[in-house]
Amino acid sequence: MLLNTIRKALSKIVLERIRPHVEQYLSHSQSGFRPNRSTSDVAWTHKWLAAKVNIENIAIKIAGIDMSAAFDTIKRETLLKILEDIVNEDEHRIIRFLLSNTIINTKIIGATEKKPFFSNIGTPQGDSLSPVLFTIYLEHALKEVRPVLPKPLTPLEKVLPREIAYTDDVNFVAFQDIDIEEVGKVLEKYNLQVNVDKTEFTNLSRGETIWQTTKKVGTLIGDQEDIERRKQLSSAALVKLKNVWLKGDKITKYTKLKLYKALVKIIRDYGLINIRKLHGIYKRRYGQNLSFEFFRPFMHLFPPMTFDKYLESLLYEKRLKSDIARLLEYRSNGITKLHGVKQFYMMRHRRSDTKSQRHLFSQVLGHVKDELSCQAWLARQGGVEGTTKAPAMPLTAAPRKPAPRLNIEGLPGYERLNQLEKEFCAEVRLIPEAYLDFSRILIAECYKLGSLKLAQARTLIKIDVNKTRKLFDFLVLHGHIVKGS
């Protein structure tokens, strides 16, 4: 069934809005049209039951019901009544609108006259919302079916799933016989017709082998049988492909070229033959300088060569900015010739090594400016060397050594700072990009309120309170924000 674009868009919007509510309403046994669920869950559950039968030496009965034209038999008023307890009022109103006044136009080959007719039952085929609405409708019906099923008696029965469902394909699991007629009577209340003749009964037991060739959602329950069947299907497919592709009388060269460009060339050009290897190459090339995970979506927008050129240009830009920042550092340290750079690095390395070494005289010079710290240090040294036998006296603790400056050169946002802001970020140990974000928040809030208090700033940015105070004072000092009274 073909639907207009507006209806498709509206159905998509409603589907995204109701999905969390639907996930809470549906039982774990339903795998159809749910995120991260598929027919693999149904096939795996049947195989798990078969394994349980072989391990525990038990017998399990499975009844797979077949519902005729399930999507076309839904009572819309009943469905809308069920949805009242699941979705909110706005979503319920939109779904009612989508299900009301459904007009269907039929197209018959050779017919000259089209007669549209109204549909007041079922959900529109081809609508992305229809399968989800059906699973809700079926889940409500199954809640009345469950009391009819044989009750679990042993602890093992309580562990086993009582039903396995994929949309309208429902299998009931029990240790006793399942009365399908009683199940059909309950489902008839919701206008869901069970085809008793097509209902499939499967007995899982260690002594029987017929269940191994039983097909569930396209997969045989027996592992070996399923593998053999898949091998036969793949061989048959390859034979058909050989007959169609290699024999010239079956397909023209023009069609072969179109298929090659659509199915083969695009795989080769985009490096999709070994996608992990391609991503590994990108990470080794750009991992230290660019966030490849951030740029990966652009692979869908650019041709391969354009995408590579795009990444190379970004890498070149980053390296160029780094070179410019390094040259600015040389100039700020008085270096005007490149041959002086080596001497500069050698002297800076020697200076850092000298600062890291602790000498007695340097410690005295470090404490001589503060009288209390100097006294505390001298008393501590005297106690260590045993030069004083006086009783220990409470001493004032020396002030904590300030943290070293942060090297912000080359960090994100470094080029957007002026010299004062660079000094501030290095002194406060604040990353340039974080400084830009925090200052933008504070400036915007000050513009909105007319002024800003320190307490308000601390509620806006969740960082160390001392850093917040220093950032607040810095912005006030340079006139970026107005301090509130």
UniProtKB/TrEMBL annotation:
InterPro entries: DNA/RNA_pol_sf, Homeodomain-like_sf, RT_dom, SWIRM, WH-like_DNA-bd_sf. GO terms for biological process: chromatin remodeling; regulation of transcription by RNA polymerase II. GO terms for cellular component: ATAC complex; nucleus. This is Transcriptional adapter 2-alpha. Residues 397-485 form the SWIRM domain. One of its GO terms (molecular function) is transcription coactivator activity. It comes from the Eukaryota. Residues 1-221 form the Reverse transcriptase domain. Pfam families: RVT_1, SWIRM.
